[in-house]
Amino acid sequence: MANKLIKMINIKQILRRLHQGESCNSIAEDLRVHKRSIRSYRRLFEVEGYSIEQALLMPETELTVLINARKPRSTPHTGKRYAVLESRFDYYCGQLKRTGVTLQLLWEEYRAEHTQGYGYSQFAHHVGQYRNRHKLSMHLQHIPGEVLQLDFAGDKLSYIDEQTGELIACEVLVCTLPFSGYSLAIALPSQKQTDFVSGIN
Predict the structure, then answer these.
(1) 117 vs 2, higher pLDDT
(2) Residues near 190 by Cβ (< 8 Å), separated by ≥ 6?
């Protein structure tokens, strides 16, 4: 989608790389962002009278307000088809918290009841918009290299031992540096302290 919202962490990465003199094409390819979006952010700061360096020094809250103030307002949805879908938003959001429930499954359930309802892409778009509007969030400032966030993934994964053919379950430790967004995942035999320390190292 051309107007898809870009996460603040990616905007910060875009700004850092523009400041380092990288081309829009190179940044777009690495971050999987459309180059028009990168150019539009650069133009936004130029129009508002900020250099890239000044934008990088802004607190995330101020940067968010500046960017959101320039976004076009979406028009309200009307009509019976949307009203039917809207009445189910809370149910769908609750179901999506359950393990194994996907938007695809919920859409199939929706279309079974409403054969003239939305196609999958519009269904996913409207449910996603509702979730974003009702999701509480807080912007956090991070200092480079100060914090490492880590946790074990919720579900176990497994791999096949090439020598024995045995299926072996494993835990997955995920570590993230919040300032840059760089992440690492490593498979470990268990969540025991010795394996945990080994994974951190």
Answers:
(1) 117
(2) 171
What residues contact 149, with CB distance under 8 A and at least 6 apart? 175, 176, 177, 178
pLDDT of amino acid 167: 92
In our burial notation (b when 16+ CB lie closer than 10 A, e otherwise), range 113-129 reads eeeebbeeeebeebbee
Q: For the whole model, what pTM was predicted?
A: 0.39
Q: Is 52 exposed, middle or buried (0-12, 13-18, 19+ CB in 10 A)?
A: middle
Asked if 52 and 19 touch (Cβ cutoff 8 Å), the reply is yes
Task: Identify the H or E element spanning 76.
Answer: none
What amino acid is encoded at 46 in this protein? E
List for the chain the helix, strand, coil content (%; round to 5): 50, 15, 40
CA-to-CA dists, residue 56 to 30, 94, 165, angstroms: 19, 37, 51
Give residue 114's identity as a one-letter amino acid code: H
- At how many degrees (to 10) do helices 120-133 and 89-96 cross? 90
Burial (CB count <10 Å: 0-12, 13-18, 19+), residue 195 = middle
Q: Residue 69: is its pLDDT beyond 80?
A: no
